[in-house]
Amino acid sequence: MGETPHSWNLSNFEAVRDGSDDSSNSPKPWEQPEFKAKAHRTWRSFQRYIWDDPDKPAIEKKFLLKLDFFLLTYTCLGYFCKNLDQQNINNAYVSGMKQALHMGGSQLTYLSNVFTAGYVVGQLPAVILATKIRPSILVSSLEILWAVFTFCCASVKTVPQLYAMRFLIELCEGAFFPDIIYVISSWSDSIRHEKRGGKRVTLFYSTATMAGMFSGYLQAAAYRNLNSVGGREGWQWLYIICGIISLPVGVIGYFFNPDFPENTRAFYLSPAEAELAQKRLFPSAQPAFALYLKSTHHSAYQINVWPTGQSAVGIIVQIAAGMLSDSPLLNGRRWQAITVMQAGTLLGSVIIAIWSVPQGLLFFAYYISFMSAGVPGIYYSWFPDLMPHGHEMRGFLTAFSNIASYVNQIWVSDAVWRTAEAPRFRPGFIWVSVVCVVLIALSVLLQFLEKRDGKRRETVAREAEHVYIEAPGDMQKV
């Protein structure tokens, strides 16, 4: 009897991957000498740079396609919604919320700190809970709750009420990033030896920049078309629309989130595919550009739309960086991509800190300052290579790294990104310039340490091959 897809076991995967399957001995169409075959080979080489090796066994490509379609689609949508609900406060602030709630001084900064506090508080408990409660249940339920709290933001009457809602939103959102990266890295372990996880994590992370871009367009449309509709202002409609977008994504998570390879019950994965995965297991603090445009008396439409170009730069750069870092050109090395992205932000920050430059150059600086938007995606995709055997450690450090970045935002925003410094934010951009230099140096250091640890592991492996066990009368090599 012929085997059905679900009757495949792990030995079938290994036979196909190792080339022991009989069909692998026949010439492939692209191995022929004709011109058409040469064009086919060129296309397949291009595919290796853009996404994955086209020479993967068909069963393995099908497995990865399922993960990309269900897991990556859901995580990108969820992270987009998270950052959309996070970014909308800036667009609402410059589009009428400031006047409606009588905000003044550095209340936007304080609002950001309350927001960050909720995010920090929610992360570590979420990672701990993810080991007890399935992420498909935990994260999805919290996403539905933050959608509800986003709706509530449209009805606040005072700044303290807005503080409370934003804290609750981030308390729920705090679970999403560390738990989802934990899940993605668990499944990405199944492709880690090929170093193809960078573009997936980077694509996931790029949705944060897309959300910032989309939020500007969304607020501009709400301000133009929905202002005063139903007795609500445009900034209130922004919160309502964001909640409408987030709510169904939370529901999708109950079905698309596969949990971990060792306990998955995803409807789209066969038992053999889950077995395969198990066996292979081993932002700026202030809307600076928008506030600059507001100070120079640009229209509400320009204030909301022009800064989206920063997000466009970030999206293009980080997706390109993810693809190149996985491609044969860089072969999974991450430090070059991080260095180039940080260098772009460094240049932009230095120009803005100088300030007394032509307006065109200042606009250029604001846009290229977003080149480093993709650094976290590359950085987190580096974790499986830096810690190849630390499954739990990667989950912990993902949450810890993210918490540390947000804790830093609390004191950094008060120290160098105060709203009173708008629109120039000179201390802030000086700080960014210093951080860029430090991160470039850190990426070079991590590359050195990764190579050193790799050599040590190779040495240990070679020594293990020459262990002798003493037996009665002689020595036996094992």
Automatic annotation (TrEMBL):
Compositional bias (Polar residues): 1-12
CC terms in the record's Gene Ontology section: plasma membrane
Residue ranges that the Swiss-Prot or TrEMBL entry lists as coiled coil: none
Molecular function as annotated in GO: transmembrane transporter activity
Compartments in which it is found: Cell membrane
Region (Disordered), start-end ranges: 1-36
Pfam families linked to this entry: MFS_1 (PF07690)
Protein name: MFS general substrate transporter
